[in-house]
């Protein structure tokens, strides 16, 4: 069955993934907005399955990269291999050349590997030897971070975190959802929504999203939200950059499209603000000393800005 | 004579220069913990008054606060200024309030107030900024006595809508009773169901209905972005929406029995306010009857 509306794909993904509506919606929104997604949560919460389901749903290629401390940049982007028989170099493209890439536990790899991935995310191309290779379109990276094991991790620099459109905190399913998981998947692998949509549909949605109307009042609301993170605050040392403004606008447009509207409403912006801002602000030492979390700071800042 | 004047000039220059240098403006040094810009109201009419307050709290004791720069005001005139210094045990608070009079209609987007000082936490000269604010100034209400005819027509339309709605409800009830075969049995009169929760805060019902009605009239006369935004704000005010409440929050608060009609009206108000300009007329045309019906329901409370 061919689907032409984003909501149809969202509904079909729920046949594979139980619960985790936030993750599924974030995946779709990031795809439509043309950006990348950062997930934080314990293992075993269907993050990989969600990516595979989305890739299958749009008929795209999915690749998973497990980040480890001994990973090299060439393991991610590819390398040139010398063929002794022919005496020539051939290029072996890395797992980054896929439509949807799951970068698992990105904070386990050293800075060199993180930079290689993040540069590819920004430029949509990689250079191997003398040649530059364009990454496929669409190209979505979903990076995960495990909050539980801090040993042997390399914290992602703030400037690099800024490249992700949004950050979603993944939590455990409810008991009812877990019952449903048991009933549905205890017998075997989860079915993937094959042939539901095409990559052309996704490109079309991306164009439609760019054309969604964003009223000037709401543009001011977005700017007010982001600049509120830069005003004097006892717990926030550095606020969000203008990238957050652009990200929030793009995601709000994608949300409006997902809801079947040609215009953005304040609810779209408000519902996405936390996921856009939480990984872009730096807390002060006083916040750490007082045990204040990023989440509570972001919520307080968002509540302070009046909804138009 | 000339030499004497020259010597006097040089003497005075040497005497006064250190004083001038020492009296040059310098930055204060403190740790700021609070810097908030607030207004006692965020919506008013031309001619009304507003109190705009800056509240600053710094650590330690400071005798006075320099270099507070207020945002530029284009729709207000200054009628008064008050400032207070409130020393605490380990901090000092400054509260400065401007009394303003609204002179022109429109949106006033206030940039953050700023203070230039040296941040004692890191010894870096900094520009501290408060939060921004938005204030809406409405045009003075139209003089109802100017023309009686539009007023009469408006009331007539409203009464006609209410009457049609009552007739429609009666027809439905009659049809249901006929289907159940209870025509011969007297239908006991049922007391009207009181609203489960007050939709509009007590004491504000009539003004809320009147404000929506006025905004609807303005929208019909001049269907544009501003009147659409005004109508949306009036609908939100009618349900006492707070400044951090989204449409979803508002709809969730509505009484169960009334959620349908009012939620649709609120969504329609969002649509006409935020849709693209070339789609606004269609959105308004499609929503007017819904607004009339919802307003009639609201007026019935």
Would you give an account of this structure?
The complex is a heterodimer of chains A (308) and B (301). Chain A has 308 residues and is an alpha/beta fold. Chain A folds into two domains: 1-207, Rossmann fold (3-Layer(aba) Sandwich), CATH 3.40.50; 212-308, Magnesium chelatase subunit I, C-Terminal domain (Helicase, Ruva Protein, domain 3, Orthogonal Bundle), CATH 1.10.8. Chain A has helices spanning 6-13, 21-33, 47-57, 73-77, 111-123, 158-161, 175-185, 199-211, 216-228, 242-258, 266-277, 285-290, 294-304; strands spanning 37-40, 62-66, 78-83, 88-93, 100-104, 125-128, 131-134, 140-145, 166-169, 236-238, 282-283. A five-stranded parallel sheet of chain A has the order 2-5-8-1-9. Chain A has a two-stranded antiparallel sheet with strand order 3-4. Chain A has a two-stranded antiparallel ribbon with strand order 6-7. In chain A, a hairpin with a 2-residue loop joins β6 (125-128) and β7. Chain A starts with 5 loop residues before the first helix and ends with a helix. Chain B has 301 residues and is an alpha+beta fold. In chain B, 43% of the residues lie in helices and 24% in strands. Chain B has helices at 2-22, 149-179, 205-221, 225-238, 247-253, 259-274, 277-299; strands at 29-30, 32-39, 43-45, 49-59, 68-69, 76-87, 91-102, 106-110, 114-119, 124-129, 133-138. In chain B, strands 1, 5, 9 and 10 form a four-stranded mixed sheet that branches. A four-stranded antiparallel sheet of chain B has the order 2-4-7-6, with no helix packed on it. The radius of gyration of chain B is 30 Å and the shape is elongated. The N and C termini of chain B lie far apart (95 Å). Classes of the chains: A alpha/beta (308), B alpha+beta (301). Chains A and B meet through α9, α11 and α13 of A and β2 and α6 of B.
